[in-house]
# Entry
Amino acid sequence: MKAQEDYTSLSRPDPPFSHPEIIPRFEGKVPRHVGVIMDGNGRWAQQRGLTRTEGHKAAEPVVFDTIAGAIEAGVRYLTLYTFSTENWNRSPAEVRFLMGFSRDIIHRRVHQMDEWGVRVRWAGRRPKLWTSVINELERAEEITKNNKVIDVVFAVNYGGRAEIVDGVNEILSRGEKKVSEKSFASHLYNSDIPDLDLIMRSSGEKRLSNFMLWQSAYAELDFEPELWPDCGRKVLWRAINAYCRRSRRFGGVESA
Ligand code: IPE
Ligand code: IPE
Ligand code: MG
# Structure
């Protein structure tokens, strides 16, 4: 077996579980389910004259700082957009790196997540995804299945349209002739998880890029300027603060 790459030269130390100085306080109800589009690793590296790969490496501690911050804030479900069905369009070398890196991160971090009370879950398509990545995700799901502090969903080989089409095909294969919104939603990847309340995207891009198209119907959208390796729990808390100030009406009118 190929030796694991050495990632010990990461640009930042591992995040502590609780922020050393700040206790997060929010004026309002914290979102139950937050989705994060972790964007900007390549640009972060480019700005420093580094390879795109270095940008992805710098993202690792930020992912775990964000998970810790979500736990501190009281978020119950966190979905992290890790690799989209369109990311196969990148160079073979970058795809290979992202696959191996995702596999190794899950492998190395599963016990830390377990200690934090994280239930690890995976959302995505099987075909094309490296078997070793699927194996690590499924192992992590098994190890952490009884944890209840937070569900962290890694969206790997995930596409919103793919998820909807997979649901439709499941319905057709069962011979169902009619669906309702509720029955259709039960065929999505993790149908027990509630819809998104908040989607945060880093790097200033203002689009969904095929993320959770069904579950985002009434999500509040928040776009932060920092590139992902410069994010972390403080940026997440900023987004949650902005969310707390929004008025969610779901097509109705605000109650007096
Ligand atoms: C996000 O950063 C990571 C993945 C999509 C896997 P990018 O790699 O998209 O970084 P930019 O957008 O090119 O800066
Ligand atoms: C979205 O970022 C996918 C992930 C963060 C995993 P991209 O960088 O792939 O999105 P586009 O191509 O800018 O829309
Ligand atoms: Mg990008």
